[in-house]
Amino acid sequence: MVAWKSTQGTYDMNVENLQLIPATDVGEQTMVGFLDHSFPMPSGNCFSVLANGKYFNIVNFCAENWEEVQRRGVSLPITIAILDEKTAIVHDQRIPSDWYRNHWCECCCPEHLLPIQQRLRHDLERKQGVRVEHGNAVSIRPDLRPQLQ
After folding, report:
1. pTM score
2. What single string gives the DSSP state of each residue in 5-43?
3. Fewer C-beta within 10 Å: the chain N or C terminus?
């Protein structure tokens, strides 16, 4: 079993134990400009959805892909899995797997909920001095990344 602790309790990451619920509306979204609009997009703007009377940040799907799958016939409600009190992932069988993000949003997703490969990369970057965290802000120094000869 993969599990993690949060201020609201322990969360089980076994797929069989995910709490799946319908999201009935889309909330806010970021407005960063992305030049590549070939679908599915590997990354894009973040967005939130309304489920059970509460908004959740979606960390594994971008707003541009959501708008495109709607254009192609997927409508609300959309199935999400709740990860913690503010964070969820899209987990809807109507959407092909290549439309989901391979890396979860590192701005919207608390680090303890990120997939292991992203947490391991953060750990290496901190040890290398590449990643410096200041509360909720993060500075990345690419010039400090180790170089192989």
Report:
1. 0.82
2. EETTEEEE--GGG-EEEEE-EEEEE-----S--PSSPSS
3. C
CA distances from 87 to 46, 51, 57, 80, 127 (A): 12, 11, 5, 10, 27
Per-residue tokens: 96: 């092909």
Q: Beta strands of the chain (E only): which ranges?
A: 3-6, 9-12, 19-23, 25-29, 47-51, 54-58, 78-82, 87-90, 131-134, 137-140
Tokens of 148: 């192989």
**What does the pLDDT look like over 29-69, one tens digit per residue?**
999 888 777 999 998 999 999 999 999 999 999 999 999 99
> Residue 32: which region, alpha, beta or left (left: phi > 0; alpha: psi -120 to 50)?
beta
Residue ranges of domains in the chain: 3-110, 115-149
* Token pair recorded at residue 74: 């997927």
Closest CA to 115 of 132, 100, 102: 102
